Amino acid sequence: MGLTGGIGAGKSTVAALLEAHGAVVTSADEISRDVVSPGSDGLAAVVAEFGDEVLTPAGTLDRRALGNLVFADDLSRARLEEILLPLIAAEAWARMEAVPAGRVAVYDVPLLVEGQMQDLFDLVVVVEADLELRLERLAERGMEREKALARIASQATDDERRAVADIVLSNSGSIDQLSADVDRLWSTRIMGSGTNV
Ligand code: ADP
User: Fold this and answer.
1) Do 128 and 185 reside in the same domain of the chain?
2) Domain endpoint, select from 61, 80, 103
3) Is-contact 3 29, C-beta < 8 A?
4) CATH number for 52
5) Protein residues with CB under 6 Å of any ligand 1 atom
6) What per-residue confidence (pLDDT) applies to 193?
7) What is the pLDDT tens value at each position of the chain, 197 positions in all?
8) Do 110 and 193 lie in a common domain?
9) Total tally of structural domains belonging to the chain
10) Which of 4, 7, 12, 133 to mutate to test the pocket of ligand 1 (most atoms within 8 A of CB)?
11) Which domain holds residue 43?
12) Ordered alpha helix ranges (H), the chain
């Protein structure tokens, strides 16, 4: 199953609820950190392209320095994506393949729509919430409104996500409501259909 949603919509919360039902969740965010961990081929390739200034003194990736280099430079950003996206895809595929038969495999990926991954899954679940609620929840998590709005503007729109969704989970209510909706999704669309990807 592919699980996505705009930032602050509640995707991670749904991932945790699915995990509580026994799903095995693979996180694209976690993989994108792992592929550039110290000693990785990914980090070596990024340094070969962008130079030592993208390393911290401790030899880890300096995300801020890299971000500054690729921000506002489409060519650099494209080059970075060219390096990282295949590594992320290969690692994601390997982890999804390693999920034992009979367990439900969930790929938690913020940019499912932007990366046109919708056809890779039996089921695409999109989490949505009203914009103001997303901004409030992100603010509680420490992200400023302006920054949150900029991130939201850089992502696909709700309509674009809805267009590829098999299921849309609305998360404009309470966590209890969301949890009940995930319970229903689990029993009707997942356990009921024999799907496991
Ligand atoms: P995403 O992974 O889509 O960015 P999260 O699942 O991390 O979003 O949710 C964003 C924030 O909102 C988190 O702090 C989360 O605990 C909180 N949150 C999620 N759903 C609800 C809800 N229904 N009511 C209140 N807070 C929520």
Assistant:
1) yes
2) 103
3) no
4) 3.40.50.300
5) 5, 7-13, 137, 140-141, 171, 174-175, 178
6) 65
7) 999 999 999 999 999 999 999 999 999 999 999 999 999 999 999 999 999 999 999 999 999 999 999 988 999 999 999 999 999 999 999 999 999 999 999 999 999 999 999 999 999 999 999 999 999 999 999 999 999 999 999 999 999 999 999 999 999 999 999 999 999 999 998 887 655 55
8) yes
9) 2
10) 12
11) 31-103
12) 11-20, 28-34, 41-50, 63-70, 74-97, 131-140, 145-154, 158-164, 175-185
Last residue of a domain, one of 103, 130, 156: 103
Residue 162 shares a structural domain with residue 179: yes
Same domain membership, residue 157 and residue 117? yes
| CA pair distance 8, 141, nearest whole angstrom | 9
Q: Are residues 182 and 162 in the same domain?
A: yes
Ligand 1: which residue has its CA nearest to atom 9? 10
Residue linked to tokens 């921000």: 71
* pLDDT at residue 192, as a whole number: 73
From the CA of 87, how far away is ligand 1's center (Å)?
28
Residues 118 and 192 in one domain: yes
CA-closest candidate to residue 11, choices 155, 116, 145, 122:
155
Same domain, 7 and 92: no
Q: Which protein residue has the closest C-alpha to ligand 1 atom 17?
A: 137
CA pair distance 134, 101, nearest whole angstrom = 36
